[in-house]
Structures are given as C-alpha cells and as structure tokens.
Amino acid sequence: MATKVRLLDAVALTEDLPEHGLSRGQVGTVVEVLAPDVFEVEFSDDDGRTYAMLALRMEQLMVLHYEPVEVT
Fold it and tell me: What is the bridge-based pairing of β-strands 38-44 and 27-35?
C-alpha cells in the first residue's frame, strides 16, 4: 500500500544518498511539492538547523505516522 506524500509530512529516506551526506532512515520534512511524484525535503538537526535540502522522488521516501492510520 503506497501512502500519498503531502506538504509538511514527516518522511524517512528509503535509500542511502552518500553524495548528500544522507543515509537510509534519516528523517526530513516535505517543504514543497515540485511535481506529482517529486518533493523538496528539508533535513534539520535537533536545533532546527538545516543540513540538507533536496528534491526527492516518492519512491525514495516513506511517510511517517504518529497516529493510527485507517487502512482501506
């Protein structure tokens, strides 16, 4: 089941991106929808400082859920 990615969703990387200093599992926030399956994602540290921001495809992301999700 694929979950739709939306603006301001918390997402995790599903693959390593060593050229950007990012690893699978790192968490970011969708800050812009660039195309139907492309999103600008911001990665910030615990102090809110951005350390990476890049365009990622839907298949590179997993939406994180903090509440139960109804499965249809």
Answer: antiparallel
Q: Kindly report, residue by residue over 4-49, the tens digit of the pLDDT.
A: 899 999 999 999 999 999 999 999 999 999 999 999 999 999 999 9
Is residue 64 within 8 Å of 30, Cβ to Cβ? no
What structural domains and CATH numbers belong to the chain? 10-63 (2.30.30)
Report which of 6, 52, 4 is spatially closest to residue 28, judged by C-alpha positions: 52
The three-class DSSP label of residue 18 is: helix
Distances (CA, A) of 40 to 1, 13, 51, 69: 22, 13, 14, 24
Q: What is the pTM of this model?
A: 0.88
CB 37 within 8 A of CB 55: no
